Amino acid sequence: MAPFLNQIAFSPTQTLLLPPSSIPSPLHHFTPLFPRLRFSNPSIRCSVAGESATSPPNPTAAVPISSVDCVVVGGGVSGLCIAQALSTSAAAPNVVVTEARERVGGNIVTVERDGYLWEEGPNSFQPSDPMLTMVVDSGLKDDLVLGDPNAPRFVLWNGKLRPIPANLTDLPFFDLMSIGGKLRAGFGALGIRPPPPGHEESIEEFVRRNLGDEVFERLIEPFCSGVYAGDPSKLSMKAAFGKVWKLEQTGGSIIGGTFKALQEKNRASKQPRDPRLPKPKGQTVGSFRKGLTMLPEAISARLGNKVKLSWKLSSISKLDDGEYSLTYETPEGVVSLKSKTVVMTIPSYVASTLLRPLSAAAADALSKFYYPPVAAVSVSYPKEAIRSEYLVDGELKGFGQLHPRTQGVETLGTIYSSSLFPNRAPPGRVLLLNYIGGATNPGILSKTDSELVEAVDRDLRKILINPNAKDPLALGVRLWPQAIPQFSIGHLDLLDVAKGSLKKAGFEGLLLGGNYVAGVALGRCVEGAYEVAAEVNDLLSKRVYK
């Protein structure tokens, strides 16, 4: 979820049986089992042992605002990071973020109580340089926590949790795949496989063709469940894993494309790395000392009264002078803002309704993105409830586990929260974050909280927990009715239609952002925020010199 199972930190380069270093700027880890995931429209179902998530004080001030450089609609991670990047820019120092809810952070929800600290939305992030830049600029460098890069990641296969290979030297020895399956993957990666079909391939089609059935069924299918909570037969390879897709396009095969990308990287001028940034070791994931909520709260505190909470956008229009007028329902009454540019970081289905008066074509395209439901279920067991074969020196160690849909369990995956980051559970207790639902199991919408906890507990007793262990402590169940946008076949075309229709209708300064644009991983949302901020700066600079 996150990204959900992003915390498990499975790298697509690992799952494609390539060494992580072989592909420049690899895709984000399958971390929080969903840490890359961002969610929308949450429904809090229960928090048996938890209080409501921590929220920053409302910075909204009833101060008249005449005109600003940019209004960012949506106070989630994407919107806040765009605003932070813009607020330090000479081209757009005057920025306002508006959020319909009473708190910032969007789908980031951290809960702390009785010695436990757990996430109910995204769970972690891949510590890429753009992500670390945002962390440092937000004043959180000293609060950053990173998972152990040597901790194993597991996939359930034939009733047993099997580690996935951490690097190329592990490939001959891991037992998740047969010798024949490994050979098929190796030959396919070299280019000995059927040619591309000439149409947009699903993830399933691409992987089965290039790497074989075993790689798909035992690695990529559960990976897709963890990152997108999606159906790989419908997800687009080009849209969801574009960097890997491009390797075949540019090099004739995955290996050929990798070598070509490395050559281009070596030829390109290398920019010096920001010396302020931490240097993570290996393939890992990150969070903060008091959970992910620290990031939006820190950015909001820095922006101060530029963040407006409980402001619900009711309409948007373009004025004769080329600027935009936005009308809001606020606790102080109806308020109008005038802005040179607007960035919509709200979910696509919300943006669709607001933009319909401006462009029916854009609204129609945005309404077609699908967000399946996902539930985050946090439970705790005593340490002695863990099966002995999964303990190392008496401890549960690892990032977590993924469950292929063919293995007879309903849960998508489980994150070992108390093993991944420090101070997440009391001594002697194990905290497990489980995700259930997704595109292949929308029926969770009809389940009660107790039924979801029972489903998770039943699955865990088949795999990780002793069958005769005591009942778990149910800390929280949070259902996200519309959780993660699916990057299905045709996704990029629909996105192009939406953006192109707005420009064609004369709304060049009205931009789209957020996870359905940049990617579902939390880290990709931050990287996408920098990209959108650069686009806004470019628009404002052109406006100045007209």
Give the topology:
Elements: E1 5-7, H1 12-15, E2 32-33, E3 43-46, E4 68-73, H2 77-87, E5 95-99, E6 110-113, E7 116-119, H3 129-137, E8 144-146, E9 153-157, E10 160-163, H4 179-190, H5 203-211, H6 213-228, H7 237-240, H8 242-251, H9 254-267, E11 286-288, H10 294-303, E12 307-309, E13 312-318, E14 324-330, E15 333-344, H11 348-355, H12 360-366, E16 374-382, E17 391-392, E18 395-396, E19 400-402, E20 411-416, H13 417-420, E21 429-437, H14 449-463, E22 473-480, H15 491-504, E23 510-512, H16 515-518, H17 522-544
Helix pairs in contact: 2-10, 2-17, 5-6, 8-9, 11-12, 12-15
In summary, what is this structure?
The protein is an alpha+beta fold and 546 residues long.
Can you put this structure into words, describing what you see?
Keywords: Chloroplast, FAD, Flavoprotein, Heme biosynthesis, Oxidoreductase, Plastid, Porphyrin biosynthesis, Transit peptide. Residues 264-277 have a biased composition (Basic and acidic residues). Residues 264-285 are annotated as: Disordered. This protein has 546 residues and is an alpha+beta fold. The chain is 32% helix and 21% strand. It is built from 17 helices and 23 strands. Strands 3-22-16-21-20-19-9-10 form an eight-stranded mixed sheet. Strands 4, 5, 12, 13, 14, 15 and 23 form a seven-stranded mixed sheet that branches. Strand 6 (110-113) and strand 7 form a beta hairpin. It is globular.
